[in-house]
């Protein structure tokens, strides 16, 4: 890190309104091009009898010269005396708008380019809405191609008035409007003599006037956990928590908290590849950390400093969402949400209001979110995740939604609503209100069966021996004349869950179906036994809810991966099966689920 301030700028606008030309000019006028690049491009154009365009300077957009349109997201770098800039070129075509979501999500300010000759287009409105929706508060409008409008002040003022009126209706206050001719260089790096009536800042001056609410390094520490690396050679038992620091900083010895699990430890070392030993990591750095205590954490958790303001944790939140999916977003359908390193299935729980970005039609009664709608809505994930509202920290408050392996929407988290009733709780309440019971009571079943019903979950890491113990326990119960049934996960995957395929995104639905089966089997008076790999607190809480009003027992094998929940029985990994079975039987006798158990 060179110590200089840095800012990310996104540039957006309708196709052919001149975004790439603006970027080319910024690169050229700040001396940010490789030596000889400008001359080489001009010579190439001369040899091919092609008019020179500053847009051709963007090496990252080589396809643009052949196709005439920008089809990829490009990141360009230049600097002024004040700071370093990364400028992100977001495509203007409707079919490429989904890429813009990713680009704008990294930006602190935006330049919105409008052609003075063509005027305000449909995409100009959409871009303004999207940039605002994604929490980019600083927007400058560049009225480009003023040379085609005769450098007319009247044309500029008319477009400025019309677009200001539009922006005010979507609650956006632009920082400034600047009349420019990117091709000619007017008002880019120096004020234009051909527009002497304009007394404002040049584009470069305006960039330097943009402010950061707070530098990322100064914000509370946020580290989305990407992966956990384990080493086994030469008695190296380190576990390295890896990812990229999203905000703030941390150093060796600092206490850390993992959310949503709630597990705590302290930084023992800072690890990085091919660098000298480090004791400190800050925003933007790809880093690894070893911890003072060996705790079990999963990718997708958010590591934070408990001494600083904490993020939100929940599975239900109000968002601003821009939808670009081919199919409308509908309630009850499962989508995939990506926020930081967290990945979770998500459902649309409620639509508060929608705005069509093309014609600004407003509705509070829509039952789906259509393509190009902007919506204030409530989303609910299958399990809790850690996040910030964008007013607190933009880097961990923006998300994208995947539908059928494509980015279909993006937005910002506005408010945590997890204290309210969840979709799962609503479902269970409705289910129990309408549960149709038979004439046989639970007490009668227990008397005939000589045991009470119970749902028993054996969990732990793969290879800990839990399946062998679960099967042997079922066999022992059966040999003692009891009604017990072991359900293997493979049986569910190939039967009840066959429609879900092998997608890991369906983990929440798989868990729900196991819980629904448990509710039925325990209602039938059975001792229902199953195994789940690496269950966490939320998995058990979900199964408990789904099995209500009946209860659940949890037997954990090996390392305890829970933070709040305490297993009913803890077994060592790989221990003798017979000994483990007796311990489980003793637990059931203690809880008066079974009366006796004979070898």
Describe this structure in words.
It is a single chain. With 599 residues, this protein is an alpha/beta fold. It has four domains: 6-209, 3-Layer(aba) Sandwich (Rossmann fold), CATH 3.40.50.300; 220-304, Translation factors (Elongation Factor Tu (Ef-tu), domain 3, Beta Barrel); 315-420, Translation factors (Elongation Factor Tu (Ef-tu), domain 3, Beta Barrel), CATH 2.40.30; 438-590, P-loop containing nucleotide triphosphate hydrolases (Rossmann fold, 3-Layer(aba) Sandwich). It is 26% helix and 30% strand. A six-stranded mixed beta sheet has the order 2-3-1-4-5-6, sandwiched between helices. Strands 7-8-13-11-10-14 form a six-stranded antiparallel barrel. 42% of the residues are buried.
Produce a short descriptive summary:
The chain has 599 residues and is α/β, with parallel strands linked by helices.
CATH topology of the largest domain: Rossmann fold
Largest sheet geometry: 6 strands, mixed
Q: What overall form do the CA principal axes indicate?
A: elongated
Q: CATH homologous superfamily of the largest domain, by name?
A: P-loop containing nucleotide triphosphate hydrolases
Q: Architecture of the largest domain in CATH?
A: 3-Layer(aba) Sandwich
Instruction: Give the tally of β-strands.
Output: 28
Distance N terminus to C terminus? 68 Å
Number of structural units classed as domains:
4
Strand content: 25-35%
Query: Number of helical runs?
Result: 14
Estimate the mean pLDDT confidence: 83
Helix coverage percent = 25-40%
Q: List unreliable stretches of 5+ residues.
A: 59-73, 92-104
Task: Report the structural category.
Answer: alpha/beta
- Could you give the order of strands across the largest sheet? 2-3-1-4-5-6
| CA-based gyration radius | 30 Å
CATH class wording of the largest domain = Alpha Beta
């Amino acid at each position: 890190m060179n110590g200089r301030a840095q800012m990310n700028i996104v540039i957006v606008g309708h196709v052919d309104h001149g975004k790439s030309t603006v970027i080319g000019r910024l690169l050229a006028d700040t001396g940010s091009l490789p030596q000889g690049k400008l001359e080489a491009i001009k010579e190439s154009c001369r040899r091919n009898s092609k008019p020179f365009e500053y847009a051709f300077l963007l090496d990252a957009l080589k396809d643009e010269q052949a196709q005439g349109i920008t089809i990829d997201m490009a990141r360009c770098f230049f600097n002024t005396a004040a700071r370093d800039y990364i400028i992100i070129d977001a495509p203007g075509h409707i079919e490429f708008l989904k890429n813009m979501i990713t680009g704008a999500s990294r930006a602190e300010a935006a330049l919105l380019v409008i052609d003075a000759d063509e005027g305000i287009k449909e995409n100009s409105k959409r871009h303004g809405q999207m940039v605002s929706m994604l929490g980019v508060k600083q927007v400058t409008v560049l009225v480009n191609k003023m040379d085609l409008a005769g450098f007319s002040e009247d044309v500029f003022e008319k477009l400025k008035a019309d677009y200001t009126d539009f922006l005010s209706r979507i609650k956006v206050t632009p920082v400034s409007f600047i009349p420019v001719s990117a091709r000619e260089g007017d008002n880019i790096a120096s004020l234009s003599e051909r527009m002497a009536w304009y007394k404002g800042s040049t584009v470069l001056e305006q960039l330097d006037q943009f402010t950061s609410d707070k530098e990322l390094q100064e914000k509370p520490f946020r580290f989305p956990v990407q992966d956990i690396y384990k080493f086994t050679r030469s008695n190296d038992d380190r576990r390295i928590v890896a990812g990229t620091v999203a905000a703030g900083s941390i150093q060796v010895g600092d206490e850390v908290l993992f959310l949503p699990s709630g597990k705590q430890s302290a930084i023992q070392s800072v690890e990085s590849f091919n660098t000298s030993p480090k004791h400190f990591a800050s925003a933007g750095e790809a880093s690894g950390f070893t911890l003072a205590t060996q705790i079990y954490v999963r990718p997708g958790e958010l590591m934070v400093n408990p001494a600083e303001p904490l993020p939100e944790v929940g599975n239900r939140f109000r968002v601003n969402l821009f939808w670009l999916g081919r199919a409308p977003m509908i309630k009850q359908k499962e989508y995939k949400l990506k926020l930081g390193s967290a990945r979770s299935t998500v459902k649309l729980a409620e639509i508060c209001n929608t705005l069509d970005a093309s014609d600004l039609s407003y509705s509070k009664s829509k039952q789906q979110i259509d393509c190009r709608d902007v919506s204030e809505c409530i989303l609910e994930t299958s399990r809790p995740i850690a996040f910030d509202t964008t007013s607190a920290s933009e880097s961990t408050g923006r998300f994208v939604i995947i539908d059928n392996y494509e980015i279909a929407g993006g937005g910002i988290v506005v408010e945590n609503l997890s204290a309210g009733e969840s979709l799962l709780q609503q479902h269970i309440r409705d289910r129990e209100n309408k549960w149709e019971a038979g004439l046989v009571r639970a007490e009668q079943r227990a008397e005939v069966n000589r045991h009470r019903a119970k749902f028993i979950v054996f969990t732990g890491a793969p290879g800990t021996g839990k399946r062998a113990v679960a099967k042997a326990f079922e066999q022992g119960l059966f040999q003692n004349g009891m009604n017990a049934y072991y359900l293997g996960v493979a049986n569910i995957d190939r039967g009840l869950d066959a429609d879900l395929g092998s997608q890991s995104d369906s983990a929440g639905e798989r868990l729900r179906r196991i819980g629904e089966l448990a509710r039925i089997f325990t209602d039938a008076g059975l001792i229902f036994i199953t195994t789940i790999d690496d269950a966490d607190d939320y998995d058990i809480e979900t199964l408990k809810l789904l099995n209500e009003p009946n209860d659940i027992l949890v037997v954990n094998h090996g390392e305890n991966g829970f933070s709040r929940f305490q297993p009913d029985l803890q077994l060592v990994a790989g221990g003798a099966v017979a000994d483990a079975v007796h311990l489980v039987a003793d637990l059931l006798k203690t809880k008066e689920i079974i009366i006796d158990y004979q070898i």
